[in-house]
Amino acid sequence: NEIYLHGLEGRVPPFTTDLTALGASARDHLDSGAFGYVAGAAGSGATHRANREAFDRRRLIPRMLSDATERDLRTTVLGAALPTPVLLAPVGVQSIVHPDGELATARAAASLGLPMVLSTASSYTLEQVAEANGEGPRWFQLYWPNDDEVCASILGRARAAGYTTLVVTLDTWTLAWRPQDLDQSYLPFIRGVGTAIPFSDPAFRAGLAKPPEEDLDAAVLRWVPMFTGTDRSWDRLPFLREHWDGPIVLKGIQHPDDARRAVDAGVDGIVVSNHGGRQVDGALASLDALPPVVEAVGARTEVLFDSGIRTGADVLKALALGARAVLVGRPFAYGLAHAGEDGLRHVLRSLLADLDLTLALSGHRSPSELTPDDLWHR
Ligand code: FNR
C-alpha cells in the first residue's frame, strides 16, 4: 500500500523490489573485488544455482475461500518471540559493501525487530554493533578459534554485549575454492576486518608483540591458523556449552546423521545451510537437504534454514518443509550496497510484504499452517 500511495505522488521505490534481480544492480555499487566476494560461490557455482533450482522444483498449492484476511506472521524461535520467521544471516566484512557495514545492518534489523546474527568476521567490534542494535534482538555467529582462551574471551564479550544465541558455523573451517576471489587475488578479510573481531579481542591482542593496527601482517599470520583447521570436533562442544549460557545452534548441517549427532550432543538447534553455495561446489541444494534433516531430528530440535531465499514464496516453501525460520544472506548485503541502512530496510520490508501477501493468497493465516502437502514437487 505504501508503495502504491507513494506512486500517486510520483515516487517510486529507491531500487527494485525484485530481490532476485538485486545482485545484478548491486554490481554498479561495488568494486569488482567486493562484488565478486558477495555474489560469488564455490567452484563452478553448481551448488549456488542448485539452491535456487530446488525452490523452483517445488511450488505452492494455493487454497481458496479460506479467509486469510487477517494474518499473523509471529513465531517463536528457541524460546524467543519474533515478529516474523525471518532472520539476517551472518555475513562477514560488511564494510567492503558499505562503510557503515554491520552498524547499518544492526540499525535496520532493530527497527524491524528481526534478529541479526553478527559474524565473527565483522568489520566493527561486537560491542559497537550491539550499541547500534540497541534493544534489537541479536545473535552471535562463531568461527570457532582453536585457541581456547581467545574463544572464551570472544564468547564472554558477546554474552556481556547482549547477544542471546550462539550460532557456530561448521562448514567454513577453511575457505573454499572461490574463483571470483582467486582471480582477483581478493582477500576480503584483510580489507574488511580492519581492527574488529577478533583483532579487537584482548586475548588475541595479548598474543601479538604490537597492536594489529601497527602490524597487520603479524595479526593476520596469527589469525589465519587460529580460525582454520579441523582440530575442533564433536567432543569439543562441551567447551562451548561451558562458556555460553544461552541457546547454541550449529550452522552448516546437511546430512541427517550430522543432525542426529548435533542433537545427541545437546545443542538447541541447527541451521540447514550450504553457506549459500560458497563452500562445497557440487554439494546438494540446501532445500533438498532440509526434508531428510527434519525427518531425522525435527521432533527433537528446532531446524532453521538458509541458502537461496529470495522471495516470500521461498520462505513459505522452507517453512512448509519443516523449517522453523529462515535466514537471508546476499539479498540484504545487496540492499546495503545500494543504499546503506535504508537500502537494507527496503530489501527486508519488501521480502516481508511479499511473504505476507503470498501467505494470504495461498490461503493461510499463519506460516505455521503450511505442511509438505501444501507443496507440489517436480
Ligand atoms: C556469508 N555467510 C557467512 N556465514 C557465516 O556463518 N559467517 C560469515 O561470516 C559469513 N559471511 C558471508 C559473507 C557473504 C558475503 C555471504 C554472501 C555469505 C553465509 C551466510 O550466513 C548464509 O549462509 C548464506 O548467505 C545464505 O545464502 P544466501 O541467502 O546468500 O543465498
Automatic annotation (TrEMBL):
Matches recorded under InterPro entries: Aldolase_TIM, Alpha-hydoxy_acid_DH_FMN, FMN-dep_DH, FMN_HAD, FMN_hydac_DH_AS, LMO_FMN
Domain FMN hydroxy acid dehydrogenase: 11-378
Keywords, in A-Z order: Oxidoreductase
CDD domains attached to this UniProt entry: LMO_FMN (cd03332)
Domain of life: Bacteria
Cofactor(s) it depends on: FMN
Gene3D superfamilies (UniProt xref): Aldolase class I
Keyword check for Magnesium: no
Homology family: Belongs to the FMN-dependent alpha-hydroxy acid dehydrogenase family.
PANTHER family: FMN-DEPENDENT ALPHA-HYDROXY ACID DEHYDROGENASE PB1A11.03, S -2-HYDROXY-ACID OXIDASE-RELATED
Protein name (Swiss-Prot/TrEMBL): Lactate 2-monooxygenase
Species name: Streptomyces albiaxialis
